[in-house]
Design goal:
22% strand, 6-stranded mixed beta sheet, 27% helix, alpha+beta, 4 helices, Cytidine Deaminase, domain 2
């Protein structure tokens, strides 16, 4: 038997001003997008902003529906819109944040498993890591080098028959 350990690094910023200017702008875009979320049922508003390799920033937010699970998370809404609008343009970075009006988030919001899998597909598609910036309404901001770090051992096209 062999035991293997999977680790990844998280860079922790105590405040937004410690981020690179480009990252600050991306977080601000995600925060603004969160304010436009349709979160009538959970009241948990999530915003995402993707920086594309061409310099464009695409934003999106969660869209809920009374017929669960017909809604869609902010990360997937944003990724699908970015890919549809700029097909073939790699994603460089994604910023994700959330607003909880009842209990303000003082820790970073993280993507669900389905969103991690979708973002992993884009990382594999372009063969380049997508940096991830996670924030809450206040508190620490986390930066992770790639989606693969968030979803090690992900399912990929190589597992499917040709």
């Amino acid at each position: 038997m062999e035991q293997r350990e999977i680790k990844f690094n998280v860079t922790v910023f105590k405040k937004e001003s410690e981020l690179l200017k480009e990252d600050q702008e991306l977080v601000a875009a995600a925060r603004e997008a969160a304010t436009r979320a349709y979160a009538k049922y959970s009241h948990f508003q999530v915003g995402a902003a993707i920086l594309l390799a061409n310099g464009k920033i695409i934003t999106g937010n969660n869209q809920e529906n009374s017929a669960y699970p017909s809604g869609l998370c902010a990360e997937r809404t944003t990724a699908f819109y970015a890919s549809a609008t700029f097909p073939g343009v790699p994603f460089k970075k994604i910023a994700i944040t959330a607003i909880n009006p009842v209990h303000p988030l003082d820790y970073p919001a993280t993507p669900c498993g389905a969103c991690r899998q979708v973002l992993s597909e884009y990382e594999h598609k372009y063969g380049k890591p997508i940096e991830v910036i996670l924030s809450g309404q206040k508190g620490e901001i986390w930066k992770i080098d790639s989606i693969e770090s968030l979803l090690p051992l992900s399912f990929g096209a190589e597992a499917l028959p040709e």
